[in-house]
Task: inverse folding
């Protein structure tokens, strides 16, 4: 039985998409069958894997709003065990379109009913906002993986995020769990990075992965070639960090 | 007559809040009367200026939803010419609460009717999303200032943002203009930074400020002390960059 993991944090630019693409592809290389669902209208996970959001037959928008089967929108990638359910900018309108629909929070969980039989892990790359698309991801998900950038503002939004997760657990999805917290863009030369990392470990203890993702320009370059880091530059610190994270993710850190 | 400038980009973590705080405070030091409006539920501009979002009598939420006069929520800062209209996490609910209201897109412009008489520049720090709060800011604003991070994904979302601005110009606010584009987190050692900066200047020509904001850790440290860079470390490259940007902003770059 597969597991659905939402990758979320309403703070922008903290490494949600980079973690979705690179954790998923590291697991795919370990021959785990993986699906990435891009539910962000920016469609960065879609383009970061080499697809052009403007030229797709069908996307998550059609699955959510028109209720076509999710399989019709899934795209294969050049990694055998990695598929992607892409997004495009039509998704910008989904929020407003869904607000007045019946059971607007559970549309995604309904359309993903059988996905756990097809894949071992399903990662949902969320937008930087606690909106209906993120709420749908929390309702459909088994757990939430939270990337936290080693910067001051990154600490601020955590209470809001945890509050939203608790709201979903109480009202929409009792089984939703915190999968873990991964520290990103860590720069060992900066006190700021060290300070934030210490604070996060102090509050969240063993919910924080031992593996820390360091700042590495190759992670920023890889998406412009439409590739995950593992195929773009397997010797980079970024690739090593994400492969280690994938190991820790599978074998359970806590 | 004052000017309302929305600082927006739906891509997360590109330096919207950092630009709002530091451009505004550099102008305040030049004795221009400045108001920062924080319309992001993360309330980073509020906390970055030393306020605790959880301990405020009234915020932009009360102004937008309860219609209290904006002056009742304005806070003075330790810079004589800089005030802030703060946010807190109540704003998370504003989106859904406003969707079914009459003229939901023009609520902010109505409550800010007289603000141009009180301040020379009013900067609105927007959330990383093209949602109703951002649409309200575009409807109330005279122009949009777009920070662009020198990273690959930063280029992806621009068409969506420009499309939204055109929609607002056509349907809600014909006078809305593009104030300018500022390149942020530039690292002169990285080809990625150079490549993105070149692309942006190619497409946008003289709409792009000459001043580039370099990556500078002091900009990331300043908010943890609740201070703009100009009072936290006036000799830092971050402070010099934002003071130069303020000069260029006032004297018109183009
Ligand atoms: N460890 C890292 N080292 C260097 N650059 C990184 C790292 N992780 C992410 N980046 C870069 O930082 C930027 C932000 O990362 P990313 O887009 O993954 O964040 P996000 O949380 O998905 O953003 P959004 O909130 O807009 O969805 C991107 O340009 C990405 O390439
Ligand atoms: N020039 C810079 N050099 C170094 N760090 C920077 C710079 N500009 C911003 N930062 C840091 O990068 C992070 C993202 O910046 P900021 O929060 O201003 O972006 P934002 O666009 O407002 O994010 P959001 O989309 O979440 O609102 C912050 O931690 C900030 O302190
Ligand atoms: Mg993303
Ligand atoms: Mg911000």
Result:
């Amino acid at each position: 039985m597969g597991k659905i993991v939402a990758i979320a944090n309403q703070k922008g630019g903290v490494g949600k998409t980079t973690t979705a693409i690179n954790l998923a592809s590291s697991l795919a290389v370990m021959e785990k069958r993986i699906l990435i669902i891009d539910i962000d209208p920016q469609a960065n996970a879609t383009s970061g894997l080499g697809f052009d959001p403007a030229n797709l037959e069908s996307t998550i928008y059609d699955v959510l709003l028109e209720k076509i089967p999710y399989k019709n929108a899934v795209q294969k990638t050049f990694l055998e065990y990695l598929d992607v359910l892409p997004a495009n900018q039509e998704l910008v309108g989904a929020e407003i379109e869904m607000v007045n629909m019946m059971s607007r929070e559970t549309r995604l969980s309904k359309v993903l009913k059988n996905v756990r039989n097809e894949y071992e892990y399903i990662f949902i790359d969320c937008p930087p906002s606690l909106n209906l698309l993120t709420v749908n991801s929390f309702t459909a998900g088994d757990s939430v993986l939270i990337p936290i950038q080693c910067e001051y503002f990154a600490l601020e939004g955590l209470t809001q995020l945890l509050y939203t997760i608790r709201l979903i657990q109480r009202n929409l999805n009792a089984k939703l769990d915190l999968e873990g917290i991964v520290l990103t863009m860590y720069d060992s030369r900066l006190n700021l990075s060290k300070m934030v990392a210490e604070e996060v470990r102090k509050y969240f203890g063993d919910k924080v992965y031992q593996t820390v993702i360091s700042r590495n320009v190759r992670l920023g370059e890889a998406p412009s070639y439409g590739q995950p880091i593992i195929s773009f530059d397997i010797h980079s610190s970024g690739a090593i960090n994400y492969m280690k994270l994938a190991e820790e993710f599978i074998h359970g850190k806590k």
User: Anything to note?
Assistant: The CA atoms of residues 150 and 197 of chain B lie 6 Å apart.
